[in-house]
């Protein structure tokens, strides 16, 4: 039986969901919030989603997608170009290759895994940004950002897992 | 997806892995290529950044409204809580301000008279564009905002951006309907300033903390905590006299300034079109090179909007104009 056009379109649209979710989280990161702490250091929401999808569905969030999402992040946030691209690309490739390790394990293992992956990711971002700007950026903001990122991961992962179960069960 | 066995599989599987590895290396190389390209700071990158701001601005414009109203609600709740205290404070402040108003009126009359006597040429009038903050690139690495005004509204690169309290930053890239504002706390921000009382000149250099540094201050400069810092107008980038901050700490190797705005409470901003094209534009540099033997001194920061004619009409006025305003 040959699937109809609509069916195929539906599958394509669902397949685009992981990349789209990273984009949404990227925009969410940009929302002006009136919390003093969050305006100096914000959680790296796109990083969480890239990690989640590379572990669970690396076929739907490829290295190329991660690269372009990073580029978009750099363009929008005014960071030196290429930094987020590199970081998200490395996170995607690294987590996708280790994805099998997390399968059929409790969620806390994945949380620990993310907390470990986020350290080099944010460190590389900090180092490269500092090198490209030509001055050492204050590490304190990066530290706060790391704590927020690691602490908020379960929330984001829960939302993404719900979405995965409803939208991507059959593809 | 992958079926095992078969001669095809045996040939294509290693090929596919090799291809994947090649693509990965290619992407890494292009990431570094992008870094170099960004470092070169071409006009192209700026255009792309502005275009990407334009791309997401319609979404952010809508999405930031509920966020703003939630913020407003929490603010109202805290206001209600502090109503009595706030009322007292405002009463006191109002009394003080009324006295200041009287002083300001007297001074403004006196100033007008003195300007008449001295034949003073007024600086160009300020055109203000009010705009809403639609995104805050709150992050550890960049201090910038996105506002919902662009070249459509007369906003262009280099213009000063102010809140009710004082200077916030400058326009880093202007798209068609949205622009990015580089805050004065960002590590890339340099603003020529003067100390209000002593009229000492300096630069306000951001370092990605909440307290930017006062740099290039002369050794004999008298700066004390509590001194107000204003834009000097040097270089023509900003209108002179916009309040920037208050000196918060003075130590041997660093003078830090507390900006007047609170970043998480910025909602509406004003972009000041000073009629000067701020930092040197490429066109102006080229024009200066062409006439380097002629009347315009090199390195002049002020480039009048209407171009060549005025520049040649008053060749010496430009570099001296901002310092004329110093007493």
Distance, first to last CA of chain B: 79 Å
Name the CATH architecture of the largest domain in chain B: Beta Barrel
CATH fold label of the largest domain in chain B:
Thrombin, subunit H
**Secondary structural class of chain A:** mainly alpha
Summing up helix and strand content along with how strands pair, one would put the structural category of chain B as: alpha+beta
| CA-based shape of chain A | globular
Report the radius of gyration of chain B as a whole number of Å: 25 Å
User: What percent of the residues of chain A sit in helical stretches (DSSP H or I)?
Assistant: over 70%
How many domain units of chain A? 1
Shape of chain B: elongated
Helix coverage percent of chain B = 40-55%
The tally of strands of chain A reads: 0
Q: Can you summarize the main beta sheet of chain A?
A: none
Rg of chain A to the nearest angstrom?
17 Å
Domain Rod shape-determining protein MreC beta-barrel core (chain B): 133-271
Region (Disordered) (chain B): 296-327
InterPro entries (chain B): Cell/Rod_1, Cell/Rod_MreC_2, MreC, MreC_beta-barrel_core
Family (chain B): Belongs to the MreC family.
Write a brief caption for the model:
Chain A has 171 residues and is an all-alpha fold. Chain A is 78% helix and 0% strand. The relative contact order of chain A is 0.15.
Please explain how this structure is put together:
The complex is a heterodimer of chains A (171) and B (327). Chain A is mostly helical and 171 residues long. Chain A has one domain (5-167). Helices cover 78% and strands 0% of the residues of chain A. In chain A, helix 2 runs antiparallel to helix 4, helix 4 packs across helix 8 (139-167) and helix 7 crosses helix 8. Chain B is of the alpha+beta class and 327 residues long. Chain B is built from six helices and twelve strands. Chains A and B meet through helix 2, helix 3, helix 5, helix 6 and helix 7 of A and helix 1, helix 2, strand 1 and strand 2 of B. Chain A: It comes from Thalassospira xianhensis MCCC 1A02616. Chain A: Keywords: Cell membrane, Cell shape, Membrane, Transmembrane, Transmembrane helix. Chain A: Belongs to the MreD family.
